Amino acid sequence: MAYRDPHQAGEPxxxxxxxxxxxxLIEHGxxxxxxxxxGLPSYYVKLKTENGVQTLWGKGLERxxxxxxxxxxxxxxxxxxxxxxxxxxxxxxxxxxxxxxxTRQLDTxxxxxxxxxxxxxxxxxxxxxxxxxxxxxxxxxxxxxRELLGFYWVLDAAKKVAEAKIQNPEGQKRFLALMRESxxxxxxxxxxxxxxxxxxxEAQRLSAHPRTAPAPERALE
Length: 221
What we know:
The protein is α+β, with helices and mostly antiparallel strands. Among the domains are: about 20-80, CATH 2.40.50.360; about 135-210, no CATH class. Helices cover about 35% and strands about 25% of the residues. It has a 5-stranded antiparallel sheet with strand order 3-2-1-4-7. The chain has a two-stranded antiparallel ribbon with strand order 5-6. Strand 5 and strand 6 (about 100-110) form a beta hairpin. Helix 2 (about 120-130) runs antiparallel to helix 5. The radius of gyration is 21 Å and the shape is elongated. Residues about 1-10, about 85-90, about 105-110 and about 210-220 have low confidence and may be disordered.
């Protein structure tokens, strides 16, 4: 019987929801899919979990290891996060005297796989929980989790939009709650804050010295 690789591109389909696999890293590397001699080139990770050895497959796993902040090694307790994020298509337009003279579409990849030592995922979880909680002040959250500064900038912008576009106070609260949840999920996934051009460098400078960041008069609702 001919071998049929279920993932012809060497990458499994994105899951309906994010998944996090936790275990001891016992092996990883390049191989053909499911070690079949006729399988397509892929990358695998073997974890020793509470339920036994689990093997994950996907070309993106190799990139996840190379881009990992914590650089896991064999025998480390790690998390392997599989995100359901699809790539984003960004269209830019150039105008001259109000007339569009050129357009350009860029496909921005978003991480399918993230591999880190388990403590990094715990750190992201605590940061996301701080961002979700409107009773925690911006200054307190940023002091504990410097990477949140950019996300609070986005919340500030969202608050202004809500006040300008949504007349119902309850509608404003629902909108901001949804925005908080969306941004908190981005923190858990390790995505950068969706800042406008040039703001990322400023956010990085201020996050290095959180006490210099301006504190709002009141916490965001």
